[in-house]
Amino acid sequence: MSSEVKLDAKIPDGPLAEKWDRHQFNLKLVNPANKKKFQIIVVGTGLAGASAAATLAELGYNVKNFCIQDSPRRAHSIAAQGGINAAKNYANDGDSVWRLFYDTIKGGDFRAREGNVYRLAQLSCNIIDHCVAQGIPFARDYGGLLDNRSFGGAQVSRTFYAKGQTGQQLLLGAYSALMRQVATGKVTLFPRREMLDLVTVDGKARGIVTRNLITGDIETYDAHAVVLATGGYGNVFNLSTNAMASNVTAAFRAYKKGAYFANPCFTQIHPTCIPVHGTYQSKLTLMSESLRNDGRVWVPKKPGDKRRPAEIPESERDYFLENKYPSFGNLVPRDVASRNAKEQCDKGKGVGETGLAVYLDFADAIARDGEDVIAGKYGNLFEMYEKITGENPYKTPMMIYPAVHYTMGGLWVDYNLMSTIDGLFVLGEANFSDHGANRLGASALMQGLADGYFVIPYTIGGYLAGTEFADVNAAKTPEFAESVDAVQRRVDKFLSINGNRTVSEFHRELGLILWEHCGMSRNEEGLVKAKTLIQNLRREFWENVYIPGTGQDLNQSLENAGRVADYLEFGELMVNDALERKESCGCHFNTAYQTDENEAKRDDENFCHVAAWEYTGDDETPRFHKEPLVFENVELSQRSYK
Amino acid sequence: MISKTINLTLKVWRQNRSDKIGRLETYPAKDISVDMSFLEMLDVVNEDLTRQKKEPIAFDHDCREGICGMCGAVVNGRAHGHEKETTLCQLHMRHFSDGDTIVIEPWRARAFPLIKDLVVDRSALDKVIAAGGYISVNAGGAPDANSLPISRDVAEKAFNAAACIGCGACVAACPNASAMLFVSAKVSHLAALPQGKPEAARRAMAMVRQMDACGFGNCSNETECEAECPKGISIIEIARLNREYFKSEFA
Amino acid sequence: MNWFIEMLRSSIGKKLMMAITGLAFILFLLIHLIGNLTLYGGKELFLSYVDHLHALGPLIRVAEIGLLTFAIIHVSTGLILFWQNLQARPVRYQVDKRAGGRTIGSATMPYTGVLILGFVVVHLLNFHFIDHTQQTVFQAVDATFAMLPYVVFYTVAVIVVAIHVSHGFWSLFQTIGANHIKYMPAIKGLGVIISLLVAAGFGFIPVYVSFIM
Ligand SMILES: Cc1cc2nc3c(=O)[nH]c(=O)nc-3n(C[C@H](O)[C@H](O)[C@H](O)COP(=O)(O)OP(=O)(O)OC[C@H]3O[C@@H](n4cnc5c(N)ncnc54)[C@H](O)[C@@H]3O)c2cc1C
Ligand code: SF4
Ligand code: FES
Fold first, then answer.
1. Residue B165 CB–ligand 2 contact under 6 Å
2. Which terminus of chain C, N or C, has fewer Cβ atoms within 10 Å?
3. Do A396 and A484 share a domain, yes or no?
């Protein structure tokens, strides 16, 4: 597994602050009259996809936009709660583009590119301007100006929000811009379509193959460039905070056609989620981490203590975060909080029926500030908690447990957001680019919108203007027919296995394997074991899965089967990646590499790079490539939250 | 697991696009934990059906957090079930009792053709938005976000209307299958804000025309929509839509 | 003019027509009620009111034509709405429950509407299209309400009108866009008061005429 070619990220030269400007100037432009000659496929209608499709259409390109849901407005981005960061410094508290850049790089544990992250911080301000012009009802203060809050342990207030529904409001903004272009005819929508293959012609991405989820038809679409904005793959763990249709399929199909997959093992686990309550559970619900501002996290000191929380006296409670991290206490970063909660539960100190939960207690805050003040801050979260659990958090402590939340890994892209396949661009959570080994709160929305509204419109122009295109036609070019064939064969195969286990059973089992061995903390032994377990499970899947119904119809079991089949391959890629990275960094915590304080210990000497994996064939070990990360503007430091 | 379980009888609408008519089929739902959501209960029934090599019940869902608007069915005659301001995915089984019979039907409206079982086609709602549910700004030219102060109350008002998740429960619950609550939510959201004012008149007219063309019924102020809306959208938004519409026509 | 017809044909336009004509009828009802209250003052007072009314001559004709036109608009639009709304849900629910929005008034609008139309026809036959040279209106009233079935019919009819108005009144404000948390409760309250007034004021007349006078 040695690297052959070094990956070139095409980061422009020049001082950090000027890179993007210079690059924009150097990019070739498509003549306005020529734009209408280009067809662009955008897969995904989340923040990244909808914003890209709308903006490209505004520029005059013809866009075909695809999504799984019945309407573009339902993409998973809709569920984001907390907010979106921007370096506006409206709070006058010392924020700046540089600080946002630095926080993001440091938060990512120095495993992201300086050039990309700086551009992201710069564009963050344009996003807010544009979104306000679109009519997004951000929270405001009494003077009528935009309100900000601090989020995810940041020391400045730079998070813009719309109650607890920021993602919804931002997505509806992008969706409305998109629908405006649908009305002009510049965008054609293809909802309820699942992309099942990428078609390349002469090494360039020239189209996709989809399954019409209602009729079951396998359809082909051609274009001059393909943009994937298909979101993250957190559902590889089965249980996560992601929407049910979130998948790796689109990205994985592209990977199999030659796009490298970068840092697949980097998954973020969010500490404040509602705990699992049964095997039938279908997804996990996130509770905003702002709760940790006032809630105190504790478990009983005695393992196996099954008394009710009120019966456990103060002296027998272990406020483990406060004890271990006196200066940050309950506000340590996501990964640290998550890991510690799991550690306590592994010691048998977990609470609740399953023993997989810790308390988040508001009693002190309520005694200090009064119920009204706490209700004012967290009223809707408390309601949501009660709706789901049937318990009243004003009276009894909440129970929380970490859950898979975000995937920093994704398809490798260069500074232009182009993958290793020419003409295949990847945006939003689906790419790997900006968050390194750990994403800061409120930065995913920012990245998705920066990619869609402000980066891709320029960089795709550079590609289109500088490329010679062969004539390609989905109905005639043989590559499309070949791809349809392969997709159809796979569908037929699924339906003919006729085994004895349901798709969900496999998914659940895969999720448990990964959660156990490739989750919050990892070690070599567990990873090696996981690899075998996944291989066996995959083999069993292809022999023993049962998928009811037919292929010529709406068949949700069939849809799931395709996604789980890809997860069963992708899971192994994650494990490979985790094995290859012999250090701890951000969310990748290998127990063999930790400081005396049990913190992630990076190895900048050997692992200051992006790991990118190239597909080499089914059941073959993928080829490893390395993109070294160069830090010219920041000094690599060790995180410490003691 | 020591949590309580209940047994239920489901009567679920089963129909394929190709079938002329559908029918209610009866299925037992056994050992349902009261901590499950309604959709998780359906998952369990579907797993059972699959194990018996029968086709599971098709239903739409995605976020399972009450925000994407994808889920929805009429449960015992109530859109999204009987809990107030709750989507089907957030309806929990503790609100049902052991031995209950639950009738589950799809949204019914001419404008929402049936696709399969509980899945219907709501693209009419997208068409209405495409007709004018936006502010016409292109990316790139916006002034500084704080150059236009907007009072907190106005922002709040806009937000309340913008909270609509486009689930279509208002249409399903309306005795007339009217989409007025949905349309009014978008018109109100944008009309409340200064950015949305320049196009307010054109927007209201275009969206109402499109709504009518989609085959929704006419509003007769039954207010069932407001009572069923999972996001608490008020019919005050409909009054506002009416005003905006008259303004657009008469001005 | 095209835009106007287009507007009226839209769903909100039809509502507007219902609202405006409905408002006119409610006003008419109130005036009619005030007039009829003279009955409680005895025959002389009532007849002098009738005389005064008839003295208005052409104005009355205009009002009559106006009311007739409004009635045609209200009834035909109402029927179109009823028909279209039935069409909007070709397959009905097997189980249909209310969520708490619908009231008796709102749920029965088309039916009470048709009943009222029938009632108005009978009412006009009873008191309007009669030979006024043969009998005074008072005599007609007296004679009609001497028959018990008429008393019952009229009493039931005004209750139906009251039910219709109970939804129609607040609803027309909602339609013309006048709904605000601050004053909607007052409008709704006023609607209830008007319905009760109509029911009590008109409803008691047949009883009064046949049993008390
Ligand atoms: C509960 C929750 C809360 C969050 N809160 C925040 C927050 O407060 N702040 C923040 O910054 N971030 C937050 N995040 C993260 C953030 O929401 C996501 O990272 C981001 O929205 C991803 O956007 P996207 O456009 O890349 O993809 P998505 O929104 O996931 O969209 C993916 C799109 O691709 C389509 N698609 C996928 N696969 C296929 C296929 N095979 N064929 C066709 N179409 C396909 C889907 O239909 C969908 O339209 C949160 C995440 C979760 C889960
Ligand atoms: S108005 Fe309410 S019921 Fe109607 S679509 Fe919006 S959220 Fe659903
Ligand atoms: S599944 Fe998203 S609202 Fe219910």
1. yes
2. N
3. no
User: B56 vs chain A: nearest CA distance in angstroms?
Assistant: 8
From C81, C91, C100, residue closest to B218, measured CB to CB: C81
Whether residue A592 is contained in a domain is answered as: yes
Is residue B112 helix, strand or coil?
strand
Residues A505 and A595 in one domain: yes
Q: Report the pLDDT value the prediction gives residue A6, as an integer from 0 to 100.
A: 74
Query: Can you list the alpha helix ranges (DSSP code H) found in chain C?
Result: 2-9, 11-36, 43-55, 58-87, 104-107, 109-127, 137-144, 148-175, 184-207
Task: Give the domain-ending residue among B91, B116, B141.
Answer: B116
Asked whether A445 and A84 are in contact (CB, 8 A), the reply is: yes
Banded model confidence at residue A619, pLDDT cuts 50, 70, 90 = confident
Average pLDDT, chain A: 95
Among B116, B137, B152, the domain-final residue is: B116
Task: Say yes or no: A282 and A378 in one domain.
Answer: yes
Cross-chain residue pair B68–A79, CB shorter than 8 Å:
yes
Single out the residue of A435, A441, A442 nearest to residue A407, CA to CA.
Answer: A435
Verify whether residue A192 is a known catalytic residue. Answer: no
Give the mutation candidate from C16, C94, C165, C188 for the B interface (greatest B CB count, under 10 A): C94
Of C30, C201, B8, B93, the closest CA to residue A278 belongs to B93
pLDDT above 50 for A3: no
User: What's the helix, strand, coil split of chain A in %, to 5?
Assistant: 40, 15, 40
**Choosing among B129, B148, B165, B188, which should be mutated to test the A contact, i.e. which has the most A CBs within 10 A?**
B129
- Render the burial of A52-77: b for 16+ CB within 10 Å, e for the rest: bbbbbbbbebbbbbbbbbbbbbbbbb
Q: In this predicted complex, what is the ipTM?
A: 0.97
Ligand 1 and A46: CB distance under 6 A: yes
Residue B17 confidence (pLDDT) above 60: yes
Q: Per-residue pLDDT tens for A524-548?
A: 999 999 999 999 999 999 999 999 9
A568 contacts A562 by C-beta, under 8 angstroms: no
**Residue A152 domain-assigned?**
no
Distance between Cα A556 and ligand 2 center (Å):
25
Q: Residue C99 class from Cβ within 10 Å (0-12 exposed, 13-18 middle, 19+ buried)?
A: buried
Please report the number of interchain residue pairs, chain B to chain C, with beta-carbon separation below 8 angstroms: 138
In a domain, A23, yes or no: no
Nearest-angstrom CA–CA distance, A21 and A12: 10
Which residues form the domain of A294?
270-404
C90 interfaces chain B, CB cutoff of 8 Å: yes
Number of structural domains chain A divides into: 2
pLDDT at A2: 46
Q: Separation of A162 CA from ligand 2 center, angstroms?
A: 19
Judge: C93–B108 Cβ closer than 8 Å, yes or no. yes
Q: Which residue is closest in CA terms to ligand 2's atom 1? A: B182
What atom of ligand 1 comes closest to residue A50's alpha carbon? 25
- Cβ within 8 Å of C, B 78-97: 78-79
Q: Per residue in A554-602, pLDDT tens?
A: 999 999 999 999 999 999 999 999 999 999 999 999 999 998 877 889 9
Q: How many domains does chain B have?
A: 2
CATH of the domain at B155: 1.10.1060.10
Give the range of the structural domain holding residue B107, as residue numbers without chain letter. Answer: 5-116
Res B1: pLDDT: 41
What's the CA-to-centroid distance between A125 and ligand 1, angstroms? 21
- What is the number of the ligand 1 atom nearest to the C-alpha of A196? 41
Q: Pick from A74, A214, C96, A548: which is nearest to B57 by CA?
A: A548
Atom of ligand 3 nearest to the CA of A79: 2
Mean pLDDT of the region C110-132: 93
| Interchain proximity C106–B238, CB inside 8 Å | no
The pTM (predicted TM-score) of the whole model is 0.96
Ligand that comes closest to the CA of residue C101 = 2
Same-domain check for residues B168 and B82: no
CATH number, domain with residue A498: 1.20.58.100
